[in-house]
Amino acid sequence: MTQQISVAPTVGEELPPFVRETGFAAWNRYAAVNDEFVPIHMDDEAGRAAGYPTAFGMGNLQWSYLHVLVREWVAGRGRIARLSCQFRNPNLKGQTVTARGVVSAVNEDDGVISAELKIWTETQDGTVLAPGTATVVFE
C-alpha cells in the first residue's frame, strides 16, 4: 500500500525559516519552563567569566528552534523520526537567530516516504550556531 501525501518533498526544497530575536526575555521564559536558571545564561558578568562577551542562550533552546522549524514544515503530513544538532557557537544576547533547513534526500521504502533534512540555526550575519540533521516520515 503506497502512502499518499499532499505535497511530496523534493531534494533541494527549502523549509520556511523560523526566526527569533534572542536575549534575556526569551532565555528567561525558556529557563522558567525548564528550571534552567544558570548564571551564564542570565548574567553578563558570569558569561564574561566563562569567556564570552555576554551571557549566552541555552543550547537546547537552539534545538527547540530546529524542532519548531521541522514541525511547522511537516504540518501534520507526517512525523519527526529523528532530529539532532551540535552546538558550535554561542547564541549571544541581541542576536537574531534563524533556523533553516533543506531537503537533502527523499526515500521510499515499502510505500513509506521519508525525507532527510540538513538543518541549522544561524545569526543575522550568517554564523552557524547549531548544524544538524533530521528525518521526517510521511504518514
From TrEMBL:
InterPro entries: HotDog_dom_sf, MaoC-like_dom
Transmembrane intervals: none
Positions of the MaoC-like domain: 27-113
Similarity comment text for this entry: Belongs to the enoyl-CoA hydratase/isomerase family.
Name listed for the protein in its UniProt record: MaoC-like domain-containing protein
Originating species: Cryptosporangium minutisporangium
Lineage: Bacteria, Bacillati, Actinomycetota, Actinomycetes, Cryptosporangiales
